[in-house]
Amino acid sequence: MMWNKRELQRKIEEWLQEDVGFGDVTTMSTIPESEQGVGILYAKEAGIVAGLPIAEQVFSTVDSTLVFEAKVEEGAQVEVGQQIAQVSGSVRSILSGERLALNLMQRLSGIATKTSEYATAVAGTKARVVDTRKTTPGLRALEKYAVRVGGGYNHRFALYDAVMIKDNHIKGAGGIAQAVAAARAVIPHTMTVEVEAESFEQVQEALAAGADTIMLDNMSLDQMVEAVQYINGRAIVEASGGVSLETIGDIAKTGVDIISVGALTHSVKAFDISLDLNTRKR
Question: Which residues bind substrate (predicted)?
Fold first, then answer.
């Protein structure tokens, strides 16, 4: 799923208003209006680059005459010191857009880099690494995009596009069978139903109720193996809870189809990117 460009444009304008407001007083008071230059964006660590199109849109929003040129492909693996992109034109405009462009690229590249590490850890198995709804408010579409750039996949986007029956829904509905039946009665035939199971008994209940996907929540490896063998392809099997780079390889080997990882977005470290300015006076 790509982001909505018009919606992103609205957000960029809001973010620039937050950061620039009525004007970048430091830049306006120190840099002549006629000053032209080139800003070089480069990596200060190794990883996966994501967000180049977003950075370009930020700079073009600040000043439509700025020229943005990517030096690597979106999703490229880069090394320390490698050029990522350059933006040329008014120095005032470059400096006014620098922070927002870098903030977004650093966040998205951090997510893509972390996702790539998890995806690499399950290589050779059938398991897919997917994200969760543990995203930054206002940035969900971009963060889920970055997961895909890093080689991962997306879970449901929001509460409205799939049914996920969890422990509190089960309690409120009076049981798994009741919750699934109630959901099936009102959702369209195109929508899937997932049920969270915390025990083998709940796996049996979810399968009997006709769940499309069964989430094995915080189960041991042995419990996962037992559940996968019991389900035997009759539903998609997802593993969730306590997933780390150290554990995901073993989880994948249990035979699950999906492994959801909240850490891809909720606690990722920003990727270090910097911008160096070269000026050329007229």
Answer: 99, 132-134, 156, 166, 196, 217, 240-242, 261-263
Residue 32 tokens read as 């002549």
Q: 3-state DSSP call for residue 27?
A: helix
- Told to judge if 166 belongs to the known catalytic residues of this protein, a careful annotator would answer yes
Backbone angles phi, psi at 109, to 5 degrees: -70, -35
pTM value surpassing 0.85: yes
Average pLDDT over residues 19-39: 95
Which position has the token pair 């660590």?
A: 45
Which residues make beta-bridge pairs with 73? none
How does pLDDT run across 43-59, given as a tens digit for each residue? 999 999 999 999 999 99
Please tell me which residue in 11, 71, 99, 253 is annotated as part of the active site: 99
Count the Cβ atoms, other than its own, within 10 Å of residue 279.
13
160 with 63, same domain: the answer is: no
Residue 79 a catalytic site member: no
**CA dihedral over 237, 240, 243, 247, signed as positive or negative:** negative
Q: Which of 11, 166, 184, 253 is catalytic?
A: 166
| Catalytic residue flag (residue 253) | no
CB 83 within 8 A of CB 42: yes
How many domains in the chain? 2
Residue 97's domain spans which residues?
Answer: 5-114+269-278
Asked whether residue 134 is marked as a ligand-binding residue, the answer is yes
